[in-house]
Amino acid sequence: MSNSLSPADIAKRAAAARALEMVEDGMTLGLGTGSTAAWFVRLLSERMKSEGLEVVGVATSSTTSWLAEELGVPLKSLEASDRIDLVVDGADEFDGDLNLIKGGGAALLQEKIVASAAERMVVVADPGKRVEHLGAFPLPVEVVRFGWPVTKTAVERVLADMDVDGREVTVRMSNGEPLVTDEGHHIFDLHLGRIRDPARLSVALNSLPGVVEHGLFIGMADTVVVGFENGAAEVVQRRLVPDAIELMRDEDA
């Protein structure tokens, strides 16, 4: 099968296959959105059919829901889930601390809600998503449609006080009209170049009326699986901060 795949798809499939090794029978899985996450859903379906693996998924977008249903992966709503054991999702960028930019597929709100409800978040990505500093990929911000030009001005004011390389804010379009997300909102794309303090920007954006959520996922990913064009995969774990290490030592003592 891999002989007919492009190098990019080989890398995505390799990342998804390695993440699939972390899935156990009986799990409730958060199913992410995007091309690499779609590979995970496909391989999950194959394993369910070949091994009798029994899992249930919680989809992060209508696109993922349609794919899972087509492939026979059972789904339930987040409202009906008392816990999510593992969420597997893609990312548009990740840095050395496994902070992420997500939302290129306009599903960031549902992705973040599902990720926050999960015991563990695993990101599947290709090497091009690894960056020293977040920001080369435009940062998506989901906003309510009511008064969105006012919200756009407020976002621009926030950016004026941020240590970033660019401050252009554009409205994401679809068929000549502002895109509407699954939850009925619009998306701003922030063209920042480099974000030197993602945590500060996260707090500032969340404080604005009209902003529903943004694509900075700070401290949420536990693991990133990087797939390569030769079919290999690398597992990158989040580094523990000193305070967390000391807490673990105290608990062991």
CATH topology of the largest domain: Rossmann fold
Distance between the termini: 51 Å
Number of domains: 2
Number of strands: 15
Query: What's the SSE pattern?
Result: HEHEHEEEHEEHEEEEHEEEEH
Work out the strand percent: 15-25%
How would you sum up the major sheet?
6 strands, mixed
* Low-confidence runs of at least 5 consecutive residues: none
Helix content: 25-40%
Q: What class would the helix/strand composition place it in?
A: alpha/beta
C-alpha-based Rg, rounded: 19 Å
Strand order of the largest sheet: 2-1-3-6-14-15
**What's the overall geometry?**
globular
User: Number of DSSP helices?
Assistant: 7
Per CATH, the architecture of the largest domain is 3-Layer(aba) Sandwich
Mean pLDDT: 94
Break the fold down into its secondary structure elements and pairings.
Blueprint: H1 7-20, E1 28-31, H2 35-51, E2 56-59, H3 62-71, E3 86-89, E4 93-94, E5 100-101, H4 108-117, E6 121-125, E7 139-143, H5 148-160, E8 168-171, E9 173-174, E10 177-178, E11 186-191, H6 198-206, E12 211-214, E13 216-217, E14 223-227, E15 233-237, H7 242-252
Parallel strand pairs: 1-2, 1-3, 3-6, 6-14
Antiparallel strand pairs: 4-5, 5-13, 7-11, 7-12, 8-11, 9-10, 14-15
Helix pairs in contact: 1-2, 2-3
